[in-house]
Design a protein that fits this description.
Shape: globular
Order of helices and strands: EHEEEHEEEEHEHHHH
Number of strands: 9
Structural class: alpha/beta
Mean pLDDT: 86
Strand content: 15-25%
Helix content: 25-40%
Low-confidence stretches: none
Largest sheet: 3 strands, parallel
Distance between the termini: 18 Å
Number of helices: 7
Radius of gyration: 22 Å
Length: 251
């Protein structure tokens, strides 16, 4: 998820983390190297000189979700270790300080950040403004972008919402408003119910692809492969794109 600044990416991510049955949210800016994401070799303390493997964020998020914020502010190269853990059976194979381990990294992974120059340049292709290696970018099912474009009607609605929220909070503090008596939003889903839905979907539900779904996905894959032309051009999609389409269709 790559967007211009000031568009509430971090708030969106924190709300998403609260809705997940199991979520680990990390800030890339506070990471020293890729081992914070993968695994590190650590020596025991108190006279114990033996080495052990300390799992990083990806193994710790196994069977849940990892949300990685501010990926554009992490140390150089810290995303390089993600290629293998996000591939195939999603297993991280570690060999450090004479220790070996296979750590499962089967999690949903959301990364958030800003474009390479801080804001999107409307005159440049968007893919060139996302600072991810093409091989790593292909591991993601979706690359979502959001651009901050001025629009009087939209800006008026957003401004009204922000001001109403600030005013409501102030009136609660002054005892002029009791939120327990406020009208509830019709159709709102309580968070514990939403978390139960997500847990059930991940653990119990495996949709089957109909013949119609398979035909539609196959046609989408073939058409996407031709977008750059057939001669002397890199195809814009690989087989990973088709697998991503299957996961999205099942979701």
């Amino acid at each position: 998820f790559v967007s211009d600044p000031g568009m509430n990416k971090s708030d969106f991510a924190s709300q998403l983390a609260e809705l997940s049955p199991k979520a680990l949210m990390k800030d890339s800016e506070g990471m020293s190297s890729e081992v914070a994401l993968t695994a590190a070799a650590t020596r025991g303390g108190f006279g114990d000189d033996s080495w052990s493997i300390e799992p990083g964020a990806l193994p710790k998020a196994n069977k849940g979700h990892l949300i990685l914020d501010e990926i554009d502010k992490g140390p150089d190269g810290f995303l390089n270790g993600l290629h293998s853990p996000l591939e195939g059976d999603q297993t991280l194979r570690v060999e450090k300080a004479g220790q070996e381990a296979n750590l499962a990294t089967r999690c949903g992974f959301l990364a958030l950040g800003n474009p390479t120059e801080g804001r999107f340049d409307h005159n440049e292709p968007i893919p060139e403004q996302v600072d991810l290696h093409p091989a790593l970018m292909s591991r993601f099912d979706l690359i979502c972008t959001m651009q901050d474009s001025p629009d009087a009607e939209t800006d008026r609605e957003i401004g009204s919402g922000i001001l109403d929220s600030i005013d409501e909070s102030a009136r609660v503090d002054h005892g002029e408003l009791d939120l327990s008596e406020a009208d509830t939003v019709t159709g709102e889903v309580p968070r514990d119910v939403m978390k139960a839905w997500v847990k059930l979907a991940r653990e119990e539900i495996t949709p089957l692809l109909s013949d119609e779904a398979k035909a539609t996905l196959q046609e989408y894959y073939v058409e996407t492969r031709q977008l750059n032309g057939e001669e002397n051009e890199k195809p814009p999609a690989t087989a990973r794109t088709l697998v991503a389409g299957v996961r999205i269709a099942m979701a």
